[in-house]
Automatic annotation (TrEMBL):
Protein name: 23S rRNA (Uracil(1939)-C(5))-methyltransferase RlmD
PANTHER family xref list: RNA M5U METHYLTRANSFERASE, TRNA (URACIL(54)-C(5))-METHYLTRANSFERASE
Keywords tagged on the record: Methyltransferase, S-adenosyl-L-methionine, Transferase
Single GO molecular function: rRNA (uridine-C5-)-methyltransferase activity
TRAM domain sequence ranges: 2-60
Catalytic EC class: transferase
Gene source species: Candidatus Gemmiger avistercoris
Statement: the UniProt record of this protein carries the keyword S-adenosyl-L-methionine: yes
EC number: 2.1.1.190
Residues at which S-adenosyl-L-methionine binds: 283, 312, 333, 383
GO annotation (BP), single: rRNA base methylation
Length: 455
């Protein structure tokens, strides 16, 4: 029987889909239900029937599943961030392991061992960076929060449990000071108003703190007063203004100026000393990222005379963390600020000329050029964006023929696709290790170890 809109069914939630929705079946049709957990018995309202499947809404929880808990944040459902906060962390880890296994078995059609996920060292207050949109509440007061799922509607959140307490407190204080100064709030549709986002970053090991106002203009009202007040009250290392006057949903604009402090903060990641402002990519969960990098380093199994190529290298942290194991490192990244940061880090480390080099290029174009030049790296590490590697990158890897490829990915589906391409072109997928860098959310990282097939 076809499902109809507003039809209510009693369903048993069998599993989670890769986007965190509960999955149930009714007469052979899959029904996807947000905010449910495996084992839940629930009344579900059909909100969007499709051909062969449907989307539902939880109307009434009848019997909770064994891994369900009561969410401890009132914004968890509507804000679109903590998609798994209604599950115990052990159950979340089981679900994320299954996400990755399903991707490699069903999408990649690969018979490769996928190990149980390595859980994060801590699953609360772990974020070292946050970008909070600024809006107004029903009473007209300035607030920060998060965008509701598939929208740019701000859901106010006074205490996000994924970020350190000081970030929540600073956001509230900054809103009060901006409101007292008469600052307007940016409105996306008419492209009017001033304050767009508050951007905060913390050096996890150093404790240094950065604040950046993202504005649709050139300055804040009472700028020095507001920045000095916040610096004094919250021990900020540096305060910045980023000017984003474009009609865009990209958070940062191209120009950033320093109001107070050095314009950057310092920290270490996997033993690598770093400086960063706002444009550099940096894993948001430092302790879990160090677990991830350690496993990637073990998979690389570098030898003292090896040449390591790090594609999509960001600030160079993965490659630099592996540099003690090899002779030479070449990193490639398309973001200029990240490359400048990687080069500066290498200079501060006092590395001999030629030991570590970083190039600002598209990964695919750089890899193709290196292959054409006859470069022969022994190990290649790739850490692409969610869309995965492009064909040019994969083809260049095939041509350069390293003995080992280590793929770090935030999207198991594209990792499975790219792994399959490599297995069809001379490589064997040895093992996949999921690592949870994003507790309470639907996202999970994974590392794939591939070895060159011997003729």
């Amino acid at each position: 029987m076809p499902l109809t809109k507003n039809q209510i069914l009693r369903l048993s939630i069998e599993s989670l889909s890769s986007d965190g929705n509960g999955v149930a079946h009714w007469e052979g049709q899959a029904i996807f239900v947000p905010n449910t957990a495996p084992g839940d018995e629930a009344e579900v309202r059909i909100v969007k029937p499709m051909k062969g499947y449907a989307f539902g809404r939880l109307e009434k929880l009848l019997v909770p599943g064994p891994g369900r808990i009561e969410p401890d944040c009132p914004a968890a459902g509507p804000c679109g961030g903590c998609g798994l906060r209604h599950m115990a962390y052990a159950a979340e880890c089981q679900a994320k392991t299954q996400f990755v296994r399903d991707a490699f078995a069903r999408l990649g059609r690969l018979d490769v061992p996928v190990l149980p996920v390595i859980g994060a060292p801590g699953h609360e207050r772990y974020r070292n960076k946050v970008q909070l949109p600024v809006g107004r509440d029903a009473d007209g007061h300035l607030v920060t929060g998060f965008y509701a799922g598939r929208s740019h509607r701000i859901v106010a959140c006074a205490d996000c449990k994924l970020q350190p307490v000081w970030m929540n407190e600073l956001a509230a204080r900054a809103c009060a000071l901006l409101e007292q100064a008469g600052a307007s709030v940016y409105e996306e549709e008419p492209h009017t108003g001033l304050v767009r986002h508050l951007y905060m970053r913390q050096g996890w090991h150093s404790g240094q703190r950065l604040l950046c106002f993202v504005i649709n203009g050139h300055s804040l009202p009472r700028e020095q007063e507001i920045c000095r007040t916040l610096q004094g009250e919250f021990g900020l290392t540096t305060v910045l203004i980023n000017e984003n006057t474009a009609r865009t949903n990209v958070v940062l604009g191209p120009r950033t100026r320093t109001v107070l402090g050095p314009g950057y903060l310092e920290d270490t990641l996997a033993g690598v000393s770093l400086r960063m402002g706002v444009h550099e990519f940096y894993q948001v969960n430092t302790p879990a990222a160090e677990v991830l990098y350690a496993r990637a380093r073990a998979y690389a199994a570098l030898q003292p005379e090896d040449f390591l190529l790090d594609l999509y290298c960001g600030m160079g942290t993965i490659g630099l963390s592996m540099l003690p194991d090899c002779r030479r490192l070449l990193g490639v990244e398309i973001v200029p600020q990240a490359v400048e940061g990687a080069q500066a880090t290498a200079a501060r480390l006092g590395l001999p000329k030629g030991r570590a080099e970083f190039r600002c290029q598209d990964a695919g174009a750089a890899a193709a050029r290196l292959a054409a030049e006859g470069a022969r790296p022994d190990v290649i590490v790739v850490d692409p964006p969610r869309k995965g590697c492009d064909t040019a990158t994969l083809e260049a890897i095939r041509q350069m023929s390293p003995r080992t490829v280590v793929m770090v990915s935030c999207n198991a589906a594209t990792a499975a696709r790219d792994t399959r391409w490599l297995t069809e072109n001379g490589y064997r997928a040895v093992e996949v290790q999921p690592v949870d860098l994003f507790p309470r959310t639907r996202h999970v990282e994974c590392i794939v170890a591939l070895q060159k097939e011997q003729p």
